[in-house]
Design a protein that fits this description.
With about 130 residues, this protein is mainly alpha-helical. The protein has 5 helices and 2 strands; from the N terminus they run H-H-H-E-E-H-H.
Length: about 130
């Protein structure tokens, strides 16, 4: 969805064509898992704006690292070389603001709600009134 939205913003095309890869599940799933752990650690130590900056830096570092590894096997599904703010074609500074706000949404909506989920063990004795 991100690449489709970015394409719309830059071209005004309502085609909303997005590009993804199966690698994205692992890469960005792991990234948000780490952000969740960072959030729990940093919540009392840093202001939200600072935390989101740290999450964004983490996301860039993770995307660069995994992209670099995949590139060594000619398997990197993205190439930001056409962006002026790209670093080795693996990350681009043009995405900094969307990443920042995406990290804010991740913490304030996704992570806060998923942390509220829990498994409740159903005790058969209690459910039968014993």
């Amino acid at each position: 969805m991100f690449t489709a939205t970015w394409d719309f913003v830059t071209t005004n095309s309502w085609k909303l064509i997005g590009v993804s890869s199966i690698w994205a599940i692992f890469i960005y799933g792991t990234a948000i898992f780490i952000i969740e752990k960072m959030s729990l650690y940093l919540e009392e130590k840093c202001h939200l704006l600072c935390r989101c900056l740290l999450y964004t830096l983490w996301t860039y570092a993770w995307e660069f690292s995994t992209g670099f590894l995949l590139k060594t096997f000619s398997s990197c599904p993205w190439d930001y070389s056409h962006f002026s703010g790209n670093i080795m074609g693996l990350i681009t500074l043009e995405y900094a603001v969307p990443w920042y706000f995406g990290c804010m949404i991740a913490e304030q909506v996704v992570i806060k709600n998923t942390l509220r989920l829990q498994f409740i063990q159903n005790d058969h004795k209690n459910s039968k009134g014993v």
